[in-house]
Design a protein that fits this description.
The protein is α/β, with parallel strands linked by helices. Helix content is about 30%, strand content about 15%. The protein contains 17 helices and 21 strands. The strands form six sheets. Strands 13-12-10-5-2-1-14 form a seven-stranded parallel sheet. A five-stranded antiparallel sheet has the order 15-16-17-21-19. A three-stranded antiparallel sheet has the order 6-9-8, with no helix packed on it. The longest helix has 16 residues. It is globular, with a radius of gyration of 23 Å. About 50% of the residues are buried. Bound molecules: alpha-D-glucopyranose and calcium ion. The site of alpha-D-glucopyranose has 9 residues, from loops.
Length: about 550
Amino acid sequence: MQKLWWHDAIVYQVYPRSFQDSNGDGIGDLPGITARLSYLQALGINTLWLCPTFASPMVDNGYDISDYYAVNPEFGTLEDLRALIAQAQAHGIRVLLDLVLNHTSDQHAWFQSALESPSSPYRDFYIFRDGVDGGPPNNWRSNFGGSAWVQAPDGQYYLHVFAREQPDLNWENPAMRSALYEMIHWWMDQGVAGFRIDAICFIKKDQSFRDLPPDGPDGLADVAPRCLVQPGIEDFLAEMRDAAFAPRQAFTVAEANGVLPEQLQNFIGENGFFSTIFDFTYTDIDLKSGNWFDASGFTWRDMRDAIFANQASLQGVGHGAPYLENHDQMRSPNKYLKPHQRTDSAIKALGMLYFFLQGIPFVYQGQELGMGNHPWQSIDDFDDVSSRAQYEAALAYGLSEAEALAAIAHRARDNARTPMLWTDAAHAGFSTDTPWLPVHPGFPRINAEAQQQSDASIWAFYRNMLRIRREHSRLFFDGAFLPLCEDAKDVIAYERALDGTRICVYCNFSDAPLRTDLPPHTVLLSTCPQTAEAIAPLSAMMVRMR
Ligand code: GLC
Ligand code: CA
C-alpha cells in the first residue's frame, strides 16, 4: 500500500463552543483554539477535527448550516480560521472540518428560496411531498423525535431526518450535488486537509416514501429502515469521492452508522468512498435502541465481542477510526465504569483499551483529563435539541419525571459539551465570564494545568500512549490484530503484530488480579505499578514481547 500522511494521523476533536473562549463572551471561539495549539502539540496529536464552524443559527450547535462559505461570527471570521489553519501547520497539525451534507439549516438561502416559492430552482434541493389524508406524507419519526415532516406555508411537507430546523437535502438532484462538491473544493483551497463527514449514511431515501410499522407509543416509526444506508447510496458516495475528495487527496472520516461488515470494502477498501469510518458498535453498546433510557445492561464480554468483531471485519479490508468519546456521547468513565470503579487507573485502562486498535485513533477534548459527566439538576439545564426530545420520549414511554431526568442526565450529549477544564481558576480558565454551559465542578483537580505537571496524571498517560503509538505507527495502523485471554472474565486483551514486532495490551476490568504467564517482555506502559505475575484489578498493561 502506498504510504499517505494520514496513516500516521492521531486526531484530536475540538468542540469549538467549549474549548477556549478568547473574548470573554462565555463561548469558545477560533482564536481560543489557536491559543491552545501548543497544548495539543505537547499532547502529541498531529490532526485536529473541528466540529462545525460554519454560519449557523445553532439550533443543533452548527450541524444546521446556513452558509457553507461563512464562519459563524460567534467563533470569529474566515481570517481567524485561516490563521488557525496556518498556525496549526506551524505546530505540525493538520485541520479537518466537519461537513454536514445530509441537511442544511432552515435559514440557508437555498431553503428560504424553496419555501418562498414551489417554482424556485432550489425547491428540488430539498424533499417536498404532498400530505396524505390531511397529515404528513408518511409515519416516519425523525432522529430527534416527532414526525420527520413539517408542513410548509404552501401546504406541502418537507422532510427532516434530524431537527425540524434541519431540512434534508435532496441528493437525487444533480445540481444540488454539484453545489456541494464545489463547496468542498473551496474549503480544500483554504488549506484544510480533509473532513469529518456528518450523518452521511442518511443521504439516500427510499423513494417510495412508504409507511413503516409503528414502533413506539407515538404511532410513528424510526426513519432508519427507509433512510439509512439505502440501496443506491453507493452511487452518490462514489460520485462524491471522484468529484470532490480524490482529486484533492482529502482525508475523510465518515460518520457512517448502519454500514454492515460486508459493505466495508466499498466504504473504506482500496479506492473506497472514504479514508476511514467510525465504528459505533462499542460506543453505543450501552443502548438497546435509539432511546437514551433504554439501557442495554452490557457486559465486558459484550464489549469485547463488539470490539473483536469490528477488528476482524477490518482485517485485510481497510482502516478503522477507534474512538471512545465524541460530542454526541456521554463521558466514557460514566458509560463504561460503575461509580466505585472510576479510578484514575481504570480511566487510563479505558484509554489503553481502544487506543491501540487498528486504524486511526481519535481523542475527544477533555477525555485526556478523565472528565466525567456533569451533575445535572433539572431538564431546563440542558442546551442540546435532542435532550428535550429524549426526555419527552421517556415520559411517553411511562417513565416518571425523576426517572426520565436521570436517564437524560446520564446519556445527554451535553455531558461532552461542558467547557474544557484548563486551570483551577474561575470558570476553569475557559472564559473570563459565565460559560454557555456549566463548568464541571471537578475542575479544581481535573484540569489540564495540574495534570500536565504530574507524571501520574491521566494526561501524562495519554501523552505516553500517543508517543508509543507514534513510535510504532505502522504496527498499530496496519499490523495484525489477535485476540488474547479470551477465557478471562471482564478482561479485554489483544496483540498487535507486524514484521516480527509483537505488542500486547491487557485490560483488566474485573475485581480480581489477572494472572499472566508472559514470555520475556518489556513493559511499555502500565496504568499502575503491576507485579510480574499479575495485572491488578481495574488496570491495564502494555508489553512488547522480546
Ligand atoms: C451527527 C452529529 C450530531 C448532529 C447530527 C445531525 O450525528 O454528530 O451532533 O446532531 O449529525 O447533524
Ligand atoms: Ca468567545
